[in-house]
Amino acid sequence: MSAKILIVTGDAAESLEVLYPYQRLREEGYDVHIAAPARKKLRFVVHDFEPGFDTYTEKPGYTWPADLAFSEVDPGQYAALVVPGGRAPEYLRNDPELRKILKSFFDTDKPVAQICHGPLLTAAVGVLRGRRVTAYPALELDMQAAGATFQDAEAVVDGMLVSSRAWPDHSRWMREFLTVLRAKAPVT
C-alpha cells in the first residue's frame, strides 16, 4: 500500500497549485487525497500576470471534488501534507479543524510542502518561527511577522518544510519536496 498525501484547500485556490502536486505525487505512486471545509465540488481560480496590472489577475479555473471534509481527516493516516495557495488560505486559516490538522503534521515532523499564499495557513498555527521560508513575494512581511526568515527563491527547504513562491516555480518545488518525501515516506 502506498503512502498517503493530504492536500488541504478550498474554493478560490489556485488551480495549478492544487492540481500540479496532486497529479505529480500520484504519478510518483502516492495516494493523494484533497480535503476542504466540506465534501463538495471545489471551484479553483487561475492567477495570471497581465501588462498594466500592479498585481496578478484572477479568473475562474477548474473544478474538482474534495475527497474529505477537514472534520473527517485523521492526520495520522497521512505521510505528508501539501498546502496550495490562491485566495483560499485567507479564509481557511480561520478553520479550527484545519488548524488542528496543520499543527499535527508539524508536531510529528512530517514533510509539508507549501506554496504562494499557503504559508498564511502555517503562519496561523505558529509553526514558522525560526524557519527559513519563501512565499508569494507580497507575503514577505507576513512571513517576517510570523517569525520566519523570508528568502526570495524558487524553493526553500527547512527540515521537513519545503516552500515555494508560486506556480512558475513548480518544477523546483516538487523536485525538492520529492527529495524530502522519498527519504521520509518512500512509495512502497
TrEMBL record:
NCBIfam families: PfpI. This is Protease. Residues 4-178 form the DJ-1/PfpI domain. Keywords: Hydrolase, Protease. Pfam families: DJ-1_PfpI (PF01965). PANTHER family: DJ-1 PROTEIN, DJ-1_THIJ_PFPI FAMILY PROTEIN. CDD domains: GATase1_PfpI_1. GO terms for biological process: proteolysis. The keyword ATP-binding does not apply. Belongs to the peptidase C56 family. The keyword Protease applies. Gene3D superfamilies: 3.40.50.880. GO terms for molecular function: peptidase activity.
